[in-house]
Sequence to fold (285 residues):
Amino acid sequence: MPETSKQPDRNGLQHLQGFFEGKRNLVVLSGAGISAASGIPTYRDKAGNWTRSNPIQHQDFISKKSARQRYWLRSYSGWTAVASAAPSSSHHAIAELERQKIVKLVVTQNVDRLHQYAGSRNVIDLHGRLDEVICMSCLRVTPRHALQTKLRLLNPSFSQQGDIAPDGDADVAEDSVVSVAVPPCENCGGILKPNVVFFGDNVSKSIVQRVYDGIDNSDGMLIVGTSLKVFSGYRFCRYAAQQRKPIASINPGLTRGDELIQTIIRGYSDDVLPPVLERIISSVP
Ligand code: APR
Fold:
């Protein structure tokens, strides 16, 4: 279980409350750390070091049957844990900040949909969503839970054990990988892929532009629970800094963007966001 709590620092809370003052149009950029308290571990530790086995590469998934068999074997177990996770108090606090008209847009690198489950409405799932499956030929999108049922029927020996990862991967015994049966698309027989952006693939240009537009129209950026190690998220921190937008970050560790960020709160988001939200609400006349 990841470490997710320590005493909040009074100065940190005041600092963050000051950042929120007068803001009406914030962009939130979130990462795996915000879901740590929901029981979904992060990819990297507080120093930004990768803690998992090698993630699947987009090209391998497309070109190798064995890579797809291995993916679905592991994902069968990992998906169950992600699907049953509940939003953390940080997800709820961000949803409330949207209702209070302080946050306008949430951009998340997470594929777990916990922002939406907490009630956030204007969310960009930068790296896609794990609760959907897409056919790589006809592009039909279907619910992940339907595929889970088919996988179980085709592979009765599949287990639901193993350490899980934020992308729905899980460490399970792989001795039976060659016999894994993977269902094709029911519509066209094509290859099914989780509707997420794997390593080695790109976020679409139109989505990146929507985020840039959101930053242009914002009065600042709040970054929560991301190491910013991956360019996909880091570029938005860099862009916000180039546009001279005020930036705050909540993270118990170091991030790649720290030199660009004026308000750095070294803490766990569940210890910081709910009390600051309470202060903001109680200070409204
Ligand atoms: N509150 C806030 N931050 C936390 C918490 C917490 N409770 N717990 C951990 N963190 C921080 C860690 O210190 C770390 O900096 O969350 C960060 C998690 O970083 P990563 O695991 O690198 O996650 P993220 O930045 O979202 O990864 C980006 O990398 O592997 C790819 O595509 C994947 O979307 C992912 C991308």
In short: The longest strand covers residues 128-135. The radius of gyration is 20 Å. The pocket of adenosine-5-diphosphoribose is lined by residues 2, 4, 31-33, 36-37, 42-44, 46, 109, 127, 225-227, 229-230, 233, 250-253, 255, 268-269 (CB under 6 Å). The chain has two domains: 1-40+86-127+202-285, 50-84+130-196.
